[in-house]
Amino acid sequence: MSDPLTQQPERLSQTAVTDTPDTVSTGTETSPESSVCHEPKQIKRVLEAALLTAQEPLPMAALKRLFDNAVNARQISAALDEIAGDWLDSGIALVQVASGWRFQARKEMQPFLNRLDPPKAPRYSRAVLETLAIIAYHQPVTRGDIEEIRGISVSSTVLKTLTSRGWVDQVGYRNVPGKPALLATTQQFLDDLGLQSLEALPPLQELGALVEADVESAHSAEAEAITDPEKGQ
To answer: Which pLDDT value is given to residue 220?
Structure first.
């Protein structure tokens, strides 16, 4: 007959082996919190909170990171459409611009908001607006291209005004003698004008009005005042 004391360690060992799979995490289990976070209602809440508190437009990649990439673009787009619908009757709108999605005040609200924070943005000179239009509609262009189209030399201050504003940047060099720099508009330019892409640019004659409208908006209220670089031209 076996001694019960000699059998006890064997039983304990078997118990330990049997319990191991139940107590050790494999790293592939889904937590209750994760499941709840991926429900449509919670996806909307997370997206709305992120967009309302973001300082810059949020692209799709950033929105996916909110859910550790466990929510796909189709689900996020559906939630964004619902959020936009929820805000239709408010003074704020969810819009898509070149860099992503953001909340912004509707245009009809701007006159009221300006009373709290009057715009300090400059009025751009004709030279600046003409140069911007040439770059926007003919990009990429060199300084020589701009001068040929305008029929007048381009002041370095004009280009500095546009690059300082974040609307124009150097994107490369033309493969000709001297390798002149190529200039093009930026995503910031599209964001400030509320556009998703260059294809959404208005007709040339309307661009100036659109730019002037932007410099009176809340975005340009934070811009640094710039002296007219070609006054008198």
So the answer is: 39
